[in-house]
Amino acid sequence: MVIITRRITRRKHVSQRREQPRYGTWSGQAMRIPSSALLSSFYIQKTHFAKLLKIGDTEESQVRGIVEASRLLVDESIYAAMRRDHPRWGASNTALARWLPPAYEDGISEPRGWNPHFLYRGFPLPPVREVTRRIIHASNEAVTGDDRYSDLLTAWGQYIDHDVAFTPQSAGPPAPGAGADCQLTCEPRSPCFPIQLPANAAGPACLPFHRSTAACGTGTQGAVFGNLSAANPRQQMNGLTSFLDASTVYGSSAASERRLRNWTSAEGLLRVNVRYRDAGRAFLPFAPPSAPPACAPPPGAPGARAPCFLAGDGRASEVPALAALHTLWLREHNRLASALKALNAHWSADTAYQEARKVVGALHQIITLRDYVPRILGPEAFGRHVGPYRGYDPSVDPSVSNVFSTAAFRFGHATIHPLVRRLDARFQEHPGSRLPLRDAFFRPWRLLEEGGVDPVMRGLLARAAKLQVQDQLLNEELTERLFVLSDAGTLDLASINLQRGRDHGLPGYNEWRQFCGLSRLETRADLGAATANGSMADRILALYGHPDNIDVWLGGLAESFLPGARTGPLFACLVGKQMKALRDGDRFWWEHHGVFTEAQRRELGRHSLSRVICDNTGLTHVPRDAFRVGQWPQDFESCDRIPGMDLRAWREAPPPDDACGFPDNVENGGFLLCNESGRRLLVFSCRHGFQLQGPEQLTCTRRGWDSQPPVCRDINECEDGVDPPCHASARCKNTKGGFRCECHDPHVPGEDGRTCVEQTFRMLANPKSSLPPVEGEGEGPSWLGRGKPRDVCAPPDAPAGLAEQVANGFLRNSDHKNARKPASHEGTAGKSAGNTLSFARSTDRCPEMRNPNGGYVICKNKAITASLPVTIFTLKSPRAAADET
């Protein structure tokens, strides 16, 4: 019998101290939108469904999710809105804010530059690739180092951008008749807006470009609803919550949070990687087997793609600096959750998780607004555009604006160094440290196999950021070699940024200067004064003809810096306005009254990014200010001298003269101490997979608690007849805190873990082999299958290329006489299944794999015959792997 263990979420009591995360989605998941607003604003007749599917840049999943969501009566007690009066403000999967009306050539949807014959002030817009080539592009050698700031300043900007903004692109290839395939056309045809290349250039005529997904019912989609007009222009989506809430760590939807949490942990921990450790510290887990592998494998590994890291944001594997920061905050959450649980043994796992999450979110806010933004804007512009915190303002819309996400905050692309600098423990060049960025894109194995987080973090701290210089804007790693994963071609980040601004209908440079109270530029002299660079002004006007035509991203980059800043006046205005809105429009901002106690706010203010690095890496010395570039050793201090918060401010204990005290801890649950109108309350909750039996809260009276504490009873998920956890093809068996879906041979669980599918495996006979003991190593029967491995002990995340090589290797040697179907083995968490796996391969490299039911997988190579090399995988120490399932 084959068994897979799964866990599901049931509704539990939500602590009154901390509201649930700010979810709002159109995918049928947790929508934090009141039903009244949802039904009045989003109701879509079913007759519109088919029409929406015919629109080229509308995905079926999006449309179906909208239809289902529009019929859903949302329980506000579970999904209370972040903004009670404006529940859509800042929610995920809502339109980016417009600070100015969009500029489309047809007034509705067509971007500037869509029609090459369209003139602006008598001039056609230049192709974006030509702008890159003549103004933006710089060689990798043309790098000026920042004399003030470290590379960590650049990395933090990218990391925070991924906390607040992600604009989904239109899906492709489309369904028949639903639009063009952007990989095959150089014509501007929805959903494609290709980047044209010079006619005399060798190679393709264009670079593919997918337009951003339109917010449903806007632009040309308005025709479905009878609202096709300039009053309803195309809008773009933000797939994330706009708030600075550490969604990079926890995700922006209930579904992503469920994937990231370790539901078996009593401390409220996040999942970690069970196959790799970083000198005893955790790495990010891998994306699940059901996710398409999108990262590059190590040299010599089979297959063209490998799993990426799993984090709150899907771009965590993009470059090593991002992966290092994501890993840093994963570790910080788990450190905080464990420490808070140790201080408050009566807390449930969910309380420890939520409180740690609350602290991590606050630290993201502090580091960004206190340490990062003032260095970008300069002191004068920060005071003018952001200023001191004066409390939560319910009239402020915190939604991320289109111009911030698509142009202003992309200034940081001009500060990216062409090399990934990694340093050893003496802050000298790490072996193999001269790593071009092109060889680091989407290669998580660089972190796993080349020293871990510490060398990357030392390089970020001790090496200067690239200075944004007008004649050295974006280096060739970004304009010629972006995201190289194969020989299929490269992209150009500068051209993508310019094209994206036009795609989104961003008005031109002068319109945004006027919006910010700056003077419009009308002449070459005006532009020369704004850039303080006559040569730059000449090159821009030679392409654009008039300052009105300049793309806002280029215009903002070209401006000379404000005093003490790393941006010019336009981007300082736009970034500052956005950061002020994110702060003042956030009801959970860390400084807002009631979010933290006064003692907790005081401790949070003592913490810093340097302290987080000390607590979660092997570094023993750091600069006191992580964003100031430092020379080793004179500018580095011992971690013992770096201040940090005292978590005792979070300890909950009854007052000394209290007559009630604390009851005994609740098995498989816990309680939270609350004060309400002068009364002391205990609010109880259960661990995942359990439900309360008894009162949810107790009140302290003069005679003690007003009731006996509740107990946490196991939920029998198998009794759910409305939404059964297992498919009808499987048998559901209840377990403590979860359930199992069981299948009988020759069937095994499918990818969903709840449906039984037929297994088609054969065993490669090895007369000398036998099953190894429950613990320990040994060689045993080896399974070779057609397609993806299905045996319970076969690694479910094995790359497709590996599975194909296995199958092909078996077929070429199919004359072994003793082939038969494999015996069944029960594989539950915490027990070794006892199988050894062999994959016939053409390489002698042993890949790292894991078993779905627990344990690390050790591999070694062996040749059964001269023509059939085999890799032997053996299970070891399964107990640590329960969290990875």
TrEMBL record:
The keyword Cell inner membrane does not apply. The keyword Ribonucleoprotein does not apply. GO terms for cellular component: extracellular space; membrane. One of its GO terms (biological process) is organic acid metabolic process. Keywords: Calcium, Disulfide bond, EGF-like domain, Glycoprotein, Heme, Hydrogen peroxide, Iron, Membrane, Metal-binding, Oxidoreductase, Peroxidase, Signal, Sushi, Thyroid hormones biosynthesis, Transmembrane, Transmembrane helix. Belongs to the prostaglandin G/H synthase family. This is Thyroid peroxidase. It comes from Ovis aries.
